[in-house]
Amino acid sequence: MPHAQLSADLLIHGGEVVSVHTGQVWRADVAVTGDRVRAVLPPGAPVRAERTLDATGLVIAPGYVDAHMHIESSLLAPAEFARVTLARGTTTVLADAHEIVNVAGRDGQAWMIEQGRDTAQSMRWAVPSCVPALDGFETAGARLDDTDIAQMLEWEGVTTLGEVMDYRAVVDGDPRMHAIIDAARRRGVRLDGHCPNLSGAELGEYLWAGIDSDHCKNTAEVAVEKASLGMLLMLQEKCLTPEVVQALLDLPHLPDFCLVTDDIVVDAIVTTGHLDRVGSVALERGLPPLAVLRALTLQPARRLGLDDRGTVTPGKRADLVLLRSLTELTPVVTIAGGGVVGRDGAPVEGPGAAPEHPFGDTVRIGAPEAGTARWRVDLPDGDHAFRAMRVNGVDTYTEPDEVVLPVRDGEVDWPGRTAVVAVFERHTGRGGVTFAPVVGHDLGAGAFATTYAHDSHNLTVVATTEEALLAAAADVVAWGGGMRLVREDGTGAGLPLPIGGVMSERPADEVAEASRRLRTELGAWGWDNRNAFMSLSTLTLAVSPSVKITDRGLVRVVERAWEPATIVRATPAT
Fold it and tell me: Which residues share a beta bridge with 66?
């Protein structure tokens, strides 16, 4: 068609287009019709356009595609999540809803899909493969088997089996886990992985099962091993260690990889970014700009089987970001489906109405009382060595440690001697509880309670006093779920999460302010971790090394076995 006859809904003029295929950058205008790129034209080519957008001084690049993430981790409902992350350039996501599904089962997945259907952000979905995360070791609000998985993989928008976190079950030939994998393979969908530092013959078994990606933090040696075997590395921020980046750059050929967010809370999104933030970290660590851009666009689009996006090409979807340069990844303008949805990292529209949801009664326990929140043991009076969880200030890795505590009349006398983590089962109403000491941070008098606790989301409380434990837990139960810090000097903060105990129905700005205050107060309390929410919420993630706690007890993650609560070495009472 001659240029003089070309009509379009939108003309983006004055900018430069970047090719993620070749790395070339050239001056061009981009015409958009409907939700597609109509043409990439020489500057000034005649176009009859209803709207124009001046991109002078800007680079026109594809919108960002997040190939592995969890909407619930933002603490926002799907539509509000889409609104704020679109403005940061994330135009497509593959969302694994295993947080709400562990609470509400199939209904949780169906609700998420429905909520995301009308957003400007393209949402594709993964069916959670591990509900519960570690079957037989924890109490979740649902349990999905291979029949459930097979049926849910038929739902509209579902394209993937979500991360297979119970990698020990895969390697050890667990029948239930392999039945779930077989259901996904029969359907012909992608199988996403989660296998931190899995290596050698065991990695081979995991790949043999058909799982061909990993988004976990690995050593440089394991990252290279996985890449060399064709496993797609999905690198979130914590994976981009200097050692891993250098090891990949030292290879004869830089392997294809994706940049992903996995879990980012709303206050971090609005302050530092979403995929644009991960891309910036990748640049800071030394990855080449074109490789970073491809890992944000073309590579994840190909991973998801979305051949209609990830490139600025006629006929492809008009998901675009206008950037100041290839090293400044927060968009000046974001376009999704041909419409402007963000400017300078902020949404162009305000929040919508609070979503209706059926998940307000999922905390099925009363507030713990003094009589029900005691740490009771079947041990004689005396000082006993208890298995403790040692946390760190960098990541979510926990090591086994020990703390000696006195036992009197069948109760452990811990207040004033150690911090503890207590996990109260919230789903069935039975209300069982387990305790363990937590060491590694110097905490003041107080307690932090949360129902956002991966992945079964039981009520989890870290406390240094019994009074604070009861007070923090009582508030969270009264809210129908949430996070609450109580400090005995009178300070503290809280965030109700009434949607299944894992999401807020409030606008992003309100949730961001509450989570920011809570994060600050946690630091002042003494929980010294660069991602305090993640560190606290994964104390119960029984597939994340090395020792974790559930409502049923302590778990040796790598061995997929119970960890005895007490160490066989006791000092008799005197």
Answer: 93
Distances, alpha carbon 546 to alpha carbons 144, 397, 399, 540, 542, in Å: 25, 6, 6, 11, 9
Q: Taken in order 479, 485, 491, 497, is the CA torsion positive or negative?
A: negative
Bridge partners for 568 per DSSP: none
Over the chain (574 residues), the average pLDDT of each successive run of 10 is 74 98 98 98 95 98 98 98 98 98 98 96 98 96 97 97 96 97 98 97 98 97 98 97 98 98 97 98 98 98 98 98 98 98 97 95 93 92 97 94 97 97 95 95 97 97 96 97 93 96 98 97 95 96 95 95 83 49
Q: Tell me the C-alpha distance between 230 and 61, whole Å.
A: 27
SS3 (DSSP) at 338: coil
Q: Hey, which residues does 8 pair with through a beta bridge? A: 49
- pLDDT given at position 490: 81
Point out which residues pair with 461 in neighbouring strands: 422, 449
The whole-angstrom separation of Cα 223 and Cα 244 is 7
Report the distance separating Cα 568 and Cα 262, nearest Å: 39
**E strand residue ranges, 278-398:** 320-323, 333-336, 339-343, 346-347, 382-390
Strand 459-463 and strand 419-424: the pairing is antiparallel
Predicted pLDDT of residue 489: 82
Asked if residue 276 has a cis previous peptide bond (ω within 30° of 0), the answer is no
> Residue 557 gets which letter from DSSP?
T
Neighbouring C-beta atoms of residue 188, cutoff 10 Å: 7
Q: What SS3 class is residue 491? A: coil
Residue with tokens 């992903």: 260
Q: What 3-state DSSP class applies to 117?
A: coil
Predicted pLDDT of residue 569? 55
Q: Is 248 helix (H, G, I), strand (E, B) or coil?
A: helix
Mention every residue, 6+ apart, whose C-beta is less than 8 A from residue 493.
Answer: 484, 485, 514, 517, 518, 520, 521
Q: What sign does the dihedral 423-441-263-504 (CA atoms) show?
A: positive
d(CA 281, CA 236): 10
pTM (2 decimals)? 0.95
| DSSP 8-state secondary structure symbol assigned to residue 72 | G
**Taking Cα atoms as reference points, which of 471, 417, 453 lies closest to residue 542?**
453
92 pairs with which residues across the strands? 65, 122
d(CA 134, CA 555): 10
